[in-house]
Structure formats: structure tokens, C-alpha cells
Design a protein that fits this description.
Helix content: 25-40%
Number of helices: 12
Radius of gyration: 18 Å
Pfam families: Abhydrolase_1
CATH topology: Rossmann fold
Distance between the termini: 27 Å
Order of helices and strands: HEEEHEHEHEHHHHHHEHEH
Number of domains: 1
Strand order of the largest sheet: 1-2-4-3-5-6-7-8
Protein name: AB hydrolase-1 domain-containing protein
CATH class: Alpha Beta
Shape: globular
Largest sheet: 8 strands, mixed
CATH superfamily: Alpha/Beta hydrolase fold, catalytic domain
Structural class: alpha/beta
Number of strands: 8
Strand content: 5-15%
Length: 310
């Protein structure tokens, strides 16, 4: 990783701000990172909650080293993507397939991180293995019926509010994210980032406090809340209601899960539960790794994902 975020490179702005028009006239935003080689394997990535197409900028150096083309996609209502009120989790695979076809990508891998994990699993349930060569699920949230035990207390409050008191969830999201991330005063913005880092475990604070990592995180958050908190509320509704399929129904042969044992955002118990329920899954647990420090394993994770489909 360089000392300057790849998002600051003016020569790459066109790659980071692309859209296609879907069959229902919605816009779907995406950004490209890693290799631009025509023969590079393609990984379609699904951002966390909150997040945006810019989140996989953190993958850029690892993907470049491994000759992998990484495409981050804005889910509906985030960044450059049009809203899709009332959408379901199982609506997502059709958008993914439409993007792949528009970009003339015949075969690809998918990778969902944190709140993007359920979307990768939806693809594992819906998309044919003739197109989708492998599915990666990194530090994923679990189904709502599994519960929130082991989560950081602030996240437990938020997720339970999303499920039972949406008005309170919106208040929390607007107060904690929507308004602060658009703060124009650099002094107030620094106070926000300082508070965010202070709330993290020491190892996470060290990782996320690096200037390039912090820039990627905050830029992605700003894109996530570009149009207010409606998209976040939709995300919360989807995560905290029935996903529309059983994990045991997933038939994709190349599903890989990675989780850190010290993760308090999406506790390791969630990863273990997913691994128990999904047939033929390959599960890797990293002792002592947390929600953010697991990114130190990106080379190994990306190699493992692409190796699953070869």
C-alpha cells in the first residue's frame, strides 16, 4: 500500500466513476482497481455496510501484484447507483450478471465483505457456476435469526434498532454517519475520524489510522451516504429480515469463507455458523485477526479465491 490513496490519483478518476444503465433504467455504478490486463481474472466485489464501489481501493496493490482485475459495485442507492425501493437480497444477482454481460466478462469471481457477505451468498445461490467461478465471503454478517451475540455494543444497538425500531436506527445513522461524513470543516472532520479510530481496538486503530486506509474508508463512506440515509435503511432492512433462501440450499461448488477470531463487528461465531450451514464450503479462520486487520491477509485471500475456480 502506498502513502497516498489510489483514489487521489487523477489519472484513474474515469476508472473509479463508471455506470451502466440497467433494463429498468436504473444506473449501476462501479469502479475498477488492480490489473487492467485483458487476460486478468475478474473479481466483482460487494462492499460492506456502510460502503461503496470505492471500498476495494484497499485491494488495489494486492490485486495488481496478482494480476487480478477488481470491480467494486455500488448497491442501489449508494454512490452512483439509482435507488431501488423495496428491493430484496435475491434481486442483487441479476444486477451483477447484467454488469458482467455489459462489460463482456464471461467468467468472474465474486467477493463480499462484511455487510456485502449476504450478497455474495445470494449470488452463490442464484448464479450458474459456468459464469461464476468462485465465491468469497470475508468477515460476513450472519442471518438475522442467528442473533448479534459477540457484536460490539454500538453495532448491537444499531442492528436491533434496524429490526425493531427503524426510526431510531435512522436517527443513529444520520447522527453517526450521514451528517458527519459530509462535514466541510476539516477540523470537525478530523475530530470525527479521531473519534472513529478511538472506538476501535488497538490493532484496528493502527490499520485504519494509516493515511491511505483512512482516506479510502472516509471517501467510501461519503459515497455511501451521498443521497442521505435511505440506502442504509434499505440495507439494514435486508440484513435483518429473511434472506429469501436457506444456506443449505447453496449449491455453488467453490465457496470460500475467511474470518478473524477477534472480530467484534461481525463475530467469528457468525463465520462458523455460515461454515456449518453451507454445503462444501471451505472455511479459514485467522487466530487473533479482527474485522480490519484481516486485510493484511489480502494476498492469501485473493489467491485462495481465484484458486478455487481453477
Amino acid at each position: 500500500m502506498t502513502s497516498v490513496s489510489i483514489l487521489k490519483d487523477p489519472s484513474r478518476q474515469a476508472l473509479h466513476n463508471q455506470t451502466i444503465t440497467l433494463s429498468d433504467d436504473r444506473q449501476l455504478g462501479y469502479a475498477e482497481f488492480g490489473s487492467q490486463s485483458a487476460d486478468a481474472p475478474v473479481i466483482l466485489t460487494f462492499h460492506g455496510f456502510p460502503g461503496s464501489r470505492l471500498e476495494p481501493a484497499i485491494f488495489h496493490n494486492a490485486a495488481t501484484e496478482l494480476n487480478l482485475r477488481v470491480i467494486g459495485i455500488d448497491r442501489p442507492g449508494h454512490g452512483l447507483s439509482s435507488p431501488q425501493p423495496g428491493r430484496k437480497l435475491l434481486d442483487w444477482p441479476a444486477d451483477v450478471r447484467a454488469l458482467a454481460r455489459r462489460l463482456n466478462i464471461d467468467r468472474y469471481y465474486v467477493l463480499g465483505y462484511s455487510g456485502g457477505g449476504p450478497y455474495a451468498l445470494a449470488c452463490a445461490h442464484q448464479l450458474p457456476e459456468t459464469e461464476m467461478l468462485g465465491v468469497g465471503v470475508l468477515s460476513s454478517v450472519g442471518p438475522w435469526h442467528f442473533g448479534t451475540a459477540g457484536m460490539d455494543i454500538k453495532l448491537r444497538v444499531l442492528f436491533n434498532a434496524l429490526a425493531w425500531a427503524p426510526w431510531l436506527a435512522r436517527l443513529i445513522i444520520d447522527t453517526s454517519f450521514t451528517k458527519p461524513v459530509h462535514e466541510p470543516d476539516p477540523i470537525k472532520m478530523k475530530a470525527l475520524t479521531d473519534n472513529l479510530l478511538a472506538s476501535m481496538a488497538p490493532a484496528d486503530r493502527e490499520f485504519c489510522g494509516k493515511p491511505e486506509t483512512l482516506d479510502i474508508m472516509m471517501t467510501s463512506f461519503r459515497e455511501s451516504f451521498k443521497h442521505g440515509s435511505d440506502a442504509a435503511m434499505e440495507e439494514g432492512r435486508i440484513i435483518t429480515t429473511d434472506w429469501g433462501f436457506e444456506l443449505g440450499q447453496i449449491s455453488a461448488p467453490n465457496v470460500r469463507l475467511w474470518h478473524g477470531s477477534a472480530d467484534h463487528n461481525t463475530p467469528v461465531s457468525m463465520g462458523r455458523y455460515l461454515a456449518e450451514q453451507i454445503p462444501r464450503v471451505q472455511y479459514k479462520e485467522y487466530e487473533g485477526d479482527s474485522h480490519y486487520t484481516i486485510h493484511y491477509r489480502l494476498i492469501e485471500i485473493l489467491q485462495g479465491l481465484v484458486g478455487a475456480g481453477q
